[in-house]
Amino acid sequence: MGKEQKNEIGRVISGIKKGDRQSISRAITIAESAPEMFASLIKPLYNPKKEARVIGIVGPPGCGKSSLIAMIAPKLTAMGNKLGVIAIDASSPFTGGSFLGNRIRMQDSLSNNKIFMRSMASRGAKGGLAAAVMNAILVLSSAGYDYIIVEPVGSGQADVDILDIASTIVLVLAPGLGDEIQAAKAGLMEIGNIFVINKVDLPGADKAERDIRYFISTGPAEKRQQNIVKTSTVSREGIDELAQAIIEHEKSVDKNEFIKYRFYMETLRIATEIFSEHIDHLKKERPKWLETSLSEATDPYSAAEKIIKRIESDEKL
Amino acid sequence: MANGKNQKYYDKPIRILIAKPGIDGHDRGVYVLARAFRDAGMEVIYPGLLPTPESIIETAIDEDVDVIAISLLNGAHMAVFTKVMNLLKEKKANGIAVVGGGIIPDEDKSKLEKMGVTGNYGPGTSLNIIIEHIKKRAYGAREEKWGKSKKTK
Question: B1 lies in a domain?
Answer without folding.
Answer: no
